Automatic annotation (TrEMBL):
It comes from Nomascus leucogenys (Northern white-cheeked gibbon). Residues 1-25 form the signal peptide. This is Podocan like 1. The gene is PODNL1. The keyword rRNA-binding does not apply. Keywords: Leucine-rich repeat, Repeat, Signal. InterPro entries: Leu-rich_rpt, Leu-rich_rpt_typical-subtyp, LRR_dom_sf, SLRP. GO terms for cellular component: extracellular matrix; extracellular space. The keyword Signal applies. The lineage of its organism: Eukaryota, Metazoa, Chordata, Craniata, Vertebrata.
Length: 498
């Protein structure tokens, strides 16, 4: 013993000390103070990367050209987006068997730089993001555990049965902005993946709607392809589909039939704009709320084609070829709940007769309407927005009772016509009145009487002079904010393209 036998009191003192004896040359603060626990050793983190948690490695935007080689095996979330990576080394990926999220968005990874077995060991991977890379073919195998797969904005020309097939938890697949043709999309591409709700195939080279799509689909994006045909039965199993986007394709009447949409018992939004249709498609489902048919070649709307779509709320027919007989009386009678009718840029020469009584917004700019009779708008007393801008209306052909029934009207756009004086009988609840680009040469108080809620009155680009504005013209316009606003607000609609 190092303690002398003659000093038992020293031995007692040593036994009562709270910690070990200090070692020569070691600083006092190298040991924890009384009541403190020792800190764990610092975690390894790749240079310049951030590791905010033990399971997260963030290497975003570091201009990396080589995959980091010292990523912790405990990583569950790895982000390498916005770098210069050209390949994924299998030996490094295979170490990270616990990964749940792998973000490789916006790199330079090619199919040659992505080994076939790259993701074989990632058996817990749920989210993979490889958008904006240089892939020419999809990975042949992705893990069964996958929930979200984003391969958008590559150069993918081919996918394989096990790229997205046999993935029972897969919910979202993004393949837009690639070079996929129907030949590159095998019939069993989604077999065994019965939970896919969102599938984006827009901006590819598909010439017909792919068969054997997942029956679980809720949103299907096929816009900006070369689709001229929907094969019979291609949409017969998609009873949960709510949104279908087919705009900017090459669809003709012969490419659709009466059964194309009839089985879509949950469909709410159908976009067929920017195609080559000459008639409204048949077999529209009762659940449909929004039908976008703008920028086609439709000459006439038949009531029989709309009979099934009784729940329709928005009907958009802008930039078609509807002439004087394009909307005959009763054509829209089945649509009792119609809220908005959009007819911008057709050849209509009058307000369509027998409009649905519950209509709230009638959008008719850039047509050939030359007159408004006393009863032309009487069938729609609930209108809140009426747009007749850029037609051929002249004051002599606007009846003084044309607006009498429109007590709910809040926005009236008569810009770009041939009016020489203010219309009479304007609804007293108006908030916005657009009259710019007409031939107005004088203003009198009488047409503006009672418009005490009018907030915006646009009179720009007319023939008005100060001396032609009668005394008291502005007297009752107590709410007016800007009497000469050059442009007024547009009618609020969903985000539709014109």
């Amino acid at each position: 013993s190092l303690i002398p036998r003659c000093c038992p009191s020293l031995l007692l003192l040593l036994l009562l000390l709270p910690g070990p004896l200090p070692v020569a040359g070691m600083e006092d603060d190298a040991f924890p103070h009384l009541g403190e626990s020792s800190q764990p050793p610092p975690r390894a983190c790749p240079p310049r990367c951030s590791c905010p948690r033990v399971d997260t490695v963030d290497c975003d935007g570091l201009d990396l050209r080589v995959f980091p080689d010292n990523i912790t095996r405990a990583a569950q979330h790895l982000s390498l987006q916005n770098n210069q990576l050209q390949e994924l080394p299998y030996n490094e990926l295979s170490r990270l068997s616990g990964l749940r999220t792998l973000n490789l968005h916006n790199n330079l990874i090619s199919s040659e730089g992505l080994p076939d077995e790259a993701f074989e060991s990632l058996t817990q991977l749920q989210h993979i993001y490889v958008a904006h890379n240089k892939l020419s073919v999809a990975p042949q195998f992705l893990p069964r555990s996958l929930r979200v797969a984003d391969l958008a904005a590559n150069q993918v020309m081919e996918i394989f049965p096990l790229t997205f097939g046999e993935k029972p938890a897969l919910r979202s697949v993004y393949l837009h902005n690639n070079q996929l043709s129907n030949a590159g999309l095998p019939p069993d591409a989604f077999r065994g993946s019965e939970a896919i709700a969102t599938l984006s195939l827009s901006n590819n080279r598909l010439s017909y709607l792919p068969p054997s799509l997942p029956p679980s689909l809720e949103r299907l994006h096929l816009q900006n392809n070369l689709i001229s045909k929907v094969p019979r039965g291609a949409l017969s199993r998609q009873t949960q589909l709510r949104e279908l986007y087919l705009q900017h394709n090459q669809l003709t009447d012969s490419g659709l039939d009466a059964t194309t949409f009839s089985k879509l018992h949950s469909l709410e939004y159908l976009d067929l704009s920017h195609n080559q249709l000459t008639t409204v498609p048949a077999g529209l489902p009762r659940t449909l709320a929004i039908l976008h048919l703008g920028r086609n070649r439709i000459r006439q709307v038949e009531a029989a084609r709309l009979h099934g779509a009784r729940g329709l709320r928005y009907l958009l027919l802008q930039h078609n070829q509807l002439g004087s007989s394009g909307l005959p009386a009763g054509a829209l009678r089945p649509l009792r709940g119609l809220h908005t009718l959009h007819l911008y840029g057709n050849g209509l020469d009058c307000v369509p007769p027998a409009l649905p009584r519950r209509l709230r917004a009638l959008v008719l700019p850039h047509n050939h309407v030359a007159a408004l009779g006393a009863r032309d708008l009487a069938a729609t007393p609930g209108l809140t927005e009426l747009n007749l801008a850029y037609n051929r209306l002249a004051s002599a052909r606007v009846h003084h009772r044309a607006f009498r029934r429109l007590r709910a009207l809040r926005s009236l756009d008569l810009a770009g016509n041939q009016l020489t004086r203010l219309p009479m009988g304007l609804p007293t609840g108006l908030r916005t009145l657009q009259l710019q680009r007409n031939q107005l040469w004088m203003l009198e108080p009488e047409p503006l009487a009672g418009l005490d809620q009018l907030r915006e009155l646009s009179l720009a680009h007319n023939r008005l002079r100060v001396g032609n504005i009668g005394p008291g013209t502005w007297h009752e316009l107590q709410a007016l904010q800007s009497p000469h606003c050059p442009q007024g607000p547009s009618i609020p609609l969903p985000a539709f393209s014109w």
